[in-house]
Specification:
- The chain is an alpha/beta fold and 284 residues long.
- It has 2 domains: 127 residues, 3-Layer(aba) Sandwich (Rossmann fold); 101 residues, Nitrogenase molybdenum iron protein domain (Rossmann fold), CATH 3.40.50.
- The protein contains 11 helices and 8 strands.
- Strand 5, helix 8 and strand 6 form a beta-alpha-beta unit.
- The longest helix is centred in the middle third of the chain and has 26 residues.
- 37% of the residues are buried.
- This is Zinc ABC transporter substrate-binding protein.
- Belongs to the bacterial solute-binding protein 9 family.
- InterPro entries: AdhesinB (IPR006129), Bact_metal-bind_prot9 (IPR050492), Lipoprotein_PsaA-like (IPR006128), ZnuA-like (IPR006127).
- Keywords: Signal, Transport.
């Protein structure tokens, strides 16, 4: 009898010690997509917080990656430098590109950069801010999870279907909300909303130029545009400097509001963006 009890206890302990697969996402919105698809079958965390363009892993990040089975990339610049090192520290790490099969836009870099023949064009990585492209990313994540854990294929597919339906429902609502706007321009500090703008027939105007604070003449041209277009709201990025946005607001009477392209809850973040842009561009 004691042997049976001991054996049952040992089996219970062993099952508890079997850890869930660790999945590392490069950024929080991709973590959200992975959690939505993977549910309680996986353990997910993201790496880059704040300004992802200057991200370098901390020791704790490297420890987390070393335990991971899957790394979900999003097409960001830092991934090119660090993924080979991640794979070296985790021999069995599988890397999936969540942005696979997505045609990239050219990142807005400012007028000077556009006319500089030596300037290298950069692909805009912010594909998750278009809900249709977020669905593609989620499908790529679902495929990767199924490859890693075929026993739970139906679970992952069901979760993906629910997430897709939620994003499709949001998209229909967003199109209705934004359809009647006459002024379809919105001003942002960092040009992260290009895919979002293109999808909803909006025009994103960036304060930042070539990844840097604007020069005096660039500020002057943006200032004139804000006045000419009667722009009432300037959207700043909470992950970046808000100095230029505040200066422009003080000289035009516009107000500064925050839009976070890297917020974890992607669906809620997109809803906030639609509401904010609609409110900013609706007649008062």
């Amino acid at each position: 009898m004691l042997k049976k009890i001991f054996f049952a206890a040992a089996l219970l302990l062993a099952s508890e010690l079997i850890a869930k697969p660790v999945v590392i996402a490069s950024i929080a919105p991709v973590e959200y997509l992975a959690n939505a698809v993977g549910g309680d079958k996986i353990e997910v965390q993201s790496l880059a917080k704040g300004d992802v363009h200057s991200y370098e892993p901390k020791p704790n990040d490297m420890k987390a990656v070393a335990k991971a089975s899957l790394f979900i990339a999003a097409g960001l610049e830092f991934e090119e430098a660090w993924i080979p090192r991640f794979k070296a520290s985790a021999k069995n790490l599988v890397v999936v590109k969540s942005d696979a099969k997505i045609a990239k836009l050219k990142e807005e870099r400012g007028e000077q950069a556009e006319h500089d023949e030596k300037h290298e064009a950069h692909a805009d990585p912010h594909v998750w801010l278009n809900p249709m492209l977020a669905i593609t990313m989620a499908r790529n994540i679902s495929d990767a999870l199924i490859d890693m854990d075929k026993a739970n294929k139906d679970f992952y597919l069901e979760n993906f279907q629910k997430l897709m339906n939620d994003l499709l429902a949001f998209d229909e609502s967003a199109k209705e909300s934004l359809a009647g706007l006459k002024n379809r321009k919105f001003v942002v500090y960092h040009p992260a909303w290009g895919y979002f703008a293109a999808h909803y027939d909006l025009e994103q105007i960036s304060i930042e130029r070539s990844g840097k604070e604007p020069k005096i003449d660039e500020m002057a041209s943006t200032l004139k545009m804000i006045k000419d277009e009667n722009i009432k709201v300037i959207f700043a990025d909470p992950n970046r400097s808000q100095k230029s946005a505040q200066i422009l607001a003080s000289q035009t009477g516009a107000k500064v509001e925050l839009l976070d392209p890297l917020g974890y809850n992607l669906l809620e973040n997109l809803k906030i963006a639609v509401g904010a842009i609609k409110d900013a561009n609706s007649p008062k």
